[in-house]
């Protein structure tokens, strides 16, 4: 019996699981961005309710960081889909080579956003 179809099936299923993991990651990134934006709005509202014009007039960057996180999540989902299609073709052609630029882009993008968040938090203390 030829085990080639079983091996390809297993490889395709692993590719789909990896794709779904990236989709969950992108949803998490976008959710975190949404929370950052909403928290920014919450802080502004509380400042206005407490009649603290100093805090309500200060320009914060959390809204911009939150929107950037949502955009990064969307880019992650797009790159995950493109990577899924590429790996699918490579599996079918028996030419798969492990090289994933999505890992590098996501890692450095999250490190950049983390540095921005750390800078913002230190600046707001």
Rg, Å, rounded = 21 Å
Distance between the termini: 68 Å
Provide the domain count: 1
Q: Kindly state the percentage of residues in helix.
A: over 70%
- Apparent shape: elongated
Structural class: mainly alpha
Low-confidence stretches: none
Query: What's the helix count?
Result: 4
The biggest sheet, with number of strands, parallel, antiparallel or mixed sense and barrel status, is: none
Query: Which whole number gives the mean pLDDT?
Result: 81
Strand content: under 5%
Query: How many E-type strands?
Result: 0
- Give the ordered list of helices and strands: HHHH
Question: Which descriptors would you attach to this protein?
Answer:
125 residues; mainly alpha
Quick summary of this structure?
With about 120 residues, the chain is mainly α.
How is this structure best described in words?
The protein is mostly helical. The chain has one domain. It contains 4 helices and no strands. Helix 1 packs antiparallel against helix 3 (62-92) and helix 3 runs antiparallel to helix 4. It is elongated. The model has no long low-confidence stretch (mean pLDDT 81).
Write the layout of secondary structure elements.
Layout: H1 4-49, H2 53-57, H3 62-92, H4 101-123
Helix pairs in contact: 1-3, 3-4
């Amino acid at each position: 019996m030829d085990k080639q179809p079983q091996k390809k099936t297993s490889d395709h299923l692993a590719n789909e699981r990896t794709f779904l993991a990236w989709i969950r990651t992108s949803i998490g990134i976008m959710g975190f961005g949404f929370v950052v934006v909403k928290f920014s709005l919450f802080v502004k509202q509380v400042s206005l309710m407490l009649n603290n014009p100093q805090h309500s007039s200060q320009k914060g960057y959390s809204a911009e960081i939150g929107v950037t996180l949502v955009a990064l999540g969307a880019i992650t989902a797009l790159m995950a889909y493109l990577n899924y299609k590429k790996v699918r073709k490579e599996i079918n052609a028996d030419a798969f080579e492990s090289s994933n630029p999505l890992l590098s882009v996501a890692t450095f993008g999250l490190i950049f956003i983390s540095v921005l968040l750390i800078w913002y938090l230190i600046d707001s203390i």
